[in-house]
Automatic annotation (TrEMBL):
<dbReference type="GO" id="GO:0005212">
    <property type="term" value="F:structural constituent of eye lens"/>
</dbReference>
<comment type="function">
    <text>S-crystallins are structural components of squids and octopi eye lens. Contains relatively little if any GST activity.</text>
</comment>
<dbReference type="InterPro" id="IPR004045">
    <property type="entry name" value="Glutathione_S-Trfase_N"/>
</dbReference>
<dbReference type="GO" id="GO:0004364">
    <property type="term" value="F:glutathione transferase activity"/>
</dbReference>
<dbReference type="InterPro" id="IPR040079">
    <property type="entry name" value="Glutathione_S-Trfase"/>
</dbReference>
<dbReference type="InterPro" id="IPR036249">
    <property type="entry name" value="Thioredoxin-like_sf"/>
</dbReference>
<dbReference type="InterPro" id="IPR010987">
    <property type="entry name" value="Glutathione-S-Trfase_C-like"/>
</dbReference>
<dbReference type="Pfam" id="PF14497">
    <property type="entry name" value="GST_C_3"/>
</dbReference>
<dbReference type="Pfam" id="PF02798">
    <property type="entry name" value="GST_N"/>
</dbReference>
<feature type="domain" description="GST C-terminal">
    <location>
        <begin position="83"/>
        <end position="206"/>
    </location>
</feature>
<keyword id="KW-0273">Eye lens protein</keyword>
<protein>
    <submittedName>
        <fullName>Glutathione S-transferase 3-like</fullName>
    </submittedName>
</protein>
<dbReference type="GO" id="GO:0006749">
    <property type="term" value="P:glutathione metabolic process"/>
</dbReference>
<dbReference type="InterPro" id="IPR004046">
    <property type="entry name" value="GST_C"/>
</dbReference>
<feature type="domain" description="GST N-terminal">
    <location>
        <begin position="4"/>
        <end position="81"/>
    </location>
</feature>
<comment type="similarity">
    <text>Belongs to the GST superfamily.</text>
</comment>
<dbReference type="InterPro" id="IPR050213">
    <property type="entry name" value="GST_superfamily"/>
</dbReference>
């Protein structure tokens, strides 16, 4: 699929599409980054399988679900497991991440009651995020290479990097007491293609 024509559908923000963009940047793969406003969304919604984004067109066939899109791109461009056990471990950590990120996103974007939202943000920042960071620090310590799985960049490194480097969930995390996570973020950012992408990407509200 190295020569496949790719088009990524998403709003003009980072959100759930940014990990895919980072993978594509790391791979040096050209693609159409189709961004649209909320007002423009009805124009593109019928093109998506389930009426939601992100969605990814591969040679004109459109697929959806961010976790599936990220895993597909990681496999295609060599950022997934080298064997079934590595893949198992990567997906384990991805789902650990989703257990945190899904309720965190609900608190930020789908909680209308002001009091409930403030309480949810406080709990996420003070309880849930530190708990997740302790798990991640432990995984890095056990692996011992600076990376979460194996000795190279994989999907989960990109996911954590995005969240800690200006991603939608960055506000919840304080990694000052997690040196291995800081080192891991540095390893991702030292990739020349990723560094170039980060330096040139447009500022967006989220």
């Amino acid at each position: 699929m190295a020569n496949a024509k790719l088009k990524l559908y998403y709003f003009n923000g980072r959100g759930r599409a940014e990990v895919a963009r980072i993978i594509l940047a790391a791979a040096g793969k050209e693609y159409e980054d189709l961004r649209f406003s909320g007002q423009e969304w009805p124009k593109y919604k019928p093109e998506t399988p389930y009426g939601q984004v992100p969605a990814l067109s591969v040679d004109g066939v459109v697929y959806a679900q961010s976790v599936a899109i990220n895993a597909f791109l990681a496999r295609e461009f060599g950022f997934h497991g080298k064997n079934n056990l590595e893949t198992f471990k990567i997906e384990e950590i991805v789902h650990l991440w989703e257990d945190f990120s899904n309720p965190a996103i609900d608190v930020l974007f789908h909680t209308d009651d002001k009091t409930a939202k403030e309480a949810g943000i406080k709990k996420t920042k003070e309880e849930l995020a530190p708990r997740l960071l302790k798990f991640l620090e432990g995984i890095l310590a056990k692996n011992g290479t600076g990376y979460f799985v194996g000795n190279r960049l994989t999907l989960i490194d990109f996911i954590v990097f995005d969240a800690l480097n200006g991603g939608t969930l960055s506000q919840f995390f304080d990694v000052s007491n997690f040196p291995l996570i800081q080192k891991n973020v540095g390893l991702v950012k030292s990739n020349q293609r990723i560094a170039s992408y980060i330096a040139s990407r447009k500022e967006t509200p989220w």
